[in-house]
Design goal:
Domain Cupin type-2: 41-116
Distance between the termini: 35 Å
Pfam families: Cupin_2
Keywords: Isomerase
Order of helices and strands: HEEEEEEEEEH
Number of strands: 9
Shape: globular
Structural class: mainly beta
Organism: Alkalibacterium putridalgicola
Mean pLDDT: 94
Number of domains: 1
GO molecular function: isomerase activity
CATH superfamily: Jelly Rolls
CATH architecture: Sandwich
Low-confidence stretches: none
Largest sheet: 6 strands, antiparallel
Amino acid sequence: MEIDYKDHGKKPYIIDIEEATLGNDNYRTTIWTGEKLQTTVMAIKPGDDIGLEVHHGIDQFIRIEEGEGVCKMGPSEDDLNVEEKVSDDDVVFVPADMWHNIENTGDKPLKLYTIYAGPDHLPGTVHPTHEDAENDPNED
């Protein structure tokens, strides 16, 4: 089945999330946005990262489908007291208001999907590159 990389939110949607994640080459593609949940697929280039961030009032689930990296989390931007390697099939649970970042330490793209409870990006968000995400005025 061919993946249609657009936001299918607010209606029922069934997808092979592994196939969608591995097939995505954009830094970020939002594939479903509901009232209280959002899912994006991401491809982080070698040497790049998600970007140190915090989601106020939003819990986050991240699953690594392919690649390797390091996850850093902590209560503040300057206190990332959790640091652990991540790779295929690992998941990261990020509590609301927790600073976090995942850096790609491998030599191929780090493919992952993330679920936000509730939504963090505008419905339909696509960022082909990390730079596009950083320059998007709708991102905090």
